[in-house]
Amino acid sequence: MNLNELTIKAARKLLDDKTISAVQLTTACLKRIKTTDKTLKALITLCEKSALAAAHEADARIAKGEKGILLGIPYLAKDNLLTKGIKTTAASKMLENYVAPYNATVIARLEAAGAILLGKTNLDEFAHGASTENSAFFTTKNPWDIKRVPGGSSGGSAAALAADFCLFALGSDTGGSIRQPASFCSVVGFKPSYGRVSRHGLMSMTSSTDVVGPITKNVEDAALVLGVIAGVDEYDSTSSPDKVDNYTKNISHNLKGLKIALPQECFGSDLSPAVREVMDKAISELKKLGAQVREISLPHTKYSIPVYYIITPSEISSNLARLDGFRYGHRSKVKVGESLNEIYLQNRGEGFGPEVKRRIMLGTYALSAGYFDAYYKKAQSVRMLISDELNETLEKFDVILTPTSPHTAFKIGGQDQDPLQMYLEDTFVSGPSLAGLPAISIPAGFIKGLPLGLQIVGAKRQEAKVFQVAHNFEQATEWHKNKAKI
């Protein structure tokens, strides 16, 4: 038995029975990372010493009779989540040597629960991308085919989990950044409702859609992790005061009579026959499980990408203004003129990568005088239409079903010179983000040996319903049991 391949629930039983120790479990994960990450390149920082110390502490807590679902469970965190005393780079030269003075709330909650942080994972710089090729340091590879991308921006977390570096990982999802890499890597990626999990200590990208969520080996594990990290936070005014549900309580309830909506805009002629075949089989399986499936129309869905890519760069332009090389961030060693603008230009020119600069410029333009009403204000108006349309649909249906991605993982270097093509990666996943809805990607099949995910979207704060549908589908199929060969 390879301990690093265990699910959270399986490891919990072995830890509680004293069959294995947290030190053994952590050591197995560290060994896997050391032997495989030279090829995969999923980690920016490995925290071997502190991880082993935390494992010893977890064993001591278990020996005293302490209980906890994540006590002694090793995990990895995306490197845009602040970790006290550990570098948090956001995969950017701008923050290459930045060490956070405090933990993000999700990290603090996991630490209190006894989870063991193994390290920090690679991402597209400041989470700007869909392939992890925009990292300032290196490109993470897909464990199913190392010539292909793992998706993004949480590509490091998804690839690491698919390669069994850990038992779960944390990602952030702004417009699909957990779900799309989960699809590409054949793992479970869950985006909670906006505000369900605190954003405190998450480096802001698009503050109105940013969410922290789990990437796991199965649906039940995602529900278990969410139960620990969810909840109101005094440091995040957008966090929800609603009581955190027991997300596993009804997870196995059958789907008899449950209503599923299929947006025709997501299953049109643009969808390849291979992807359509995978989706048709998934729909057929859900029908066998007792669900009622009906095709609907979401006419405003087609505007999700243009709306997202006006609002997102606008908020990025504002959020990254703090990184000027004075308070923190890269400070150029090149002597420049005495003008403040010249110093800013040098610091940011060297510290930011091409995609970050592109988004800052797009956002600044959209927010500028004379263009604000035409672009940003109009985008926010259309966002409300998209949100209302989704919410109204979910008053009549339990969930909405779509492909997670229009295709499987593409080759490294295949799209990185075409920003528009890369933005279209978010076709099916940006709408739920704009509306703040919970959504999950689960393994649904393979096309020529490459995985493809199924997206299930629920009403706001209805995470438990999403988990129920996803878990039933997962247990009726074998896709989640397939292992990457790396």
Automatic annotation (TrEMBL):
GO terms for biological process: translation. It is an enzyme of class 6 (ligase). Signal peptide: none annotated. GO terms for cellular component: glutamyl-tRNA(Gln) amidotransferase complex. It catalyses: L-glutamyl-tRNA(Gln) + L-glutamine + ATP + H2O = L-glutaminyl-tRNA(Gln) + L-glutamate + ADP + phosphate + H(+). Gene3D superfamilies: Amidase signature (AS) domain. Residues 25-466 form the Amidase domain. The active site is at residues 78, 153, 177. Keywords: ATP-binding, Ligase, Nucleotide-binding, Protein biosynthesis, Transferase. PROSITE patterns: AMIDASES (PS00571). Its EC number is 6.3.5.7. GO terms for molecular function: ATP binding; glutaminyl-tRNA synthase (glutamine-hydrolyzing) activity; transferase activity. It comes from the Bacteria. NCBIfam families: gatA. PANTHER family: GLUTAMYL-TRNA(GLN) AMIDOTRANSFERASE SUBUNIT A, TRANSAMIDASE. Belongs to the amidase family. GatA subfamily. Allows the formation of correctly charged Gln-tRNA(Gln) through the transamidation of misacylated Glu-tRNA(Gln) in organisms which lack glutaminyl-tRNA synthetase. The reaction takes place in the presence of glutamine and ATP through an activated gamma-phospho-Glu-tRNA(Gln). Heterotrimer of A, B and C subunits. This is Glutamyl-tRNA(Gln) amidotransferase subunit A. It comes from Candidatus Falkowbacteria bacterium CG10_big_fil_rev_8_21_14_0_10_39_9.
